[in-house]
Amino acid sequence: RPCAAHLYLDRKKSISKENKLRWVASDSLGTAFTKDIDLQNATHLQINQSGNYFIYSSTTFDHSKDIYVETFYQSLTKFHPLLPRTGDVDLVFSKFGGSKTSDKHHTNFLAGVFELQRGYLISSSLSQSAHNFLDQSNQVNNYIGLFKL
């Protein structure tokens, strides 16, 4: 399929200084790929062809060692280098936790269809400490992908 990608979390270095998840385009299963989409700085998927895209992200968190699940946030964002003053714009946003009764093991799935122009950079961001709870026990627990419709 043209203009598509499916990437897995970089388990060696999962987060950037800007709290963006880092991705790899290779895996032992042979299911990760990019086609007509560029992975920039391991954190951003670059749109090379304008159009409507289905974007998805699945991130799994493990709080099994914690009594209280702190509140954390995750978002899929877009950024265009020619519009630097707009900064990251949230496409989809999620909040989880904040209670003793919150699930100790949680998978956050964010997805949607978005019209994107050539040059947009797509990324997944976490709140400050959320990366400490990423469940990296299995390569396929955390992924991001997109394809042009």
TrEMBL record:
<feature type="domain" description="THD">
    <location>
        <begin position="3"/>
        <end position="149"/>
    </location>
</feature>
<comment type="similarity">
    <text>Belongs to the tumor necrosis factor family.</text>
</comment>
<dbReference type="InterPro" id="IPR008983">
    <property type="entry name" value="Tumour_necrosis_fac-like_dom"/>
</dbReference>
<keyword id="KW-0202">Cytokine</keyword>
<protein>
    <recommendedName>
        <fullName>THD domain-containing protein</fullName>
    </recommendedName>
</protein>
<dbReference type="InterPro" id="IPR006052">
    <property type="entry name" value="TNF_dom"/>
</dbReference>
<dbReference type="GO" id="GO:0005164">
    <property type="term" value="F:tumor necrosis factor receptor binding"/>
</dbReference>
<dbReference type="GO" id="GO:0005125">
    <property type="term" value="F:cytokine activity"/>
</dbReference>
<keyword id="KW-0472">Membrane</keyword>
<dbReference type="GO" id="GO:0006955">
    <property type="term" value="P:immune response"/>
</dbReference>
<dbReference type="Pfam" id="PF00229">
    <property type="entry name" value="TNF"/>
</dbReference>
<dbReference type="GO" id="GO:0016020">
    <property type="term" value="C:membrane"/>
</dbReference>
<dbReference type="GO" id="GO:0005615">
    <property type="term" value="C:extracellular space"/>
</dbReference>
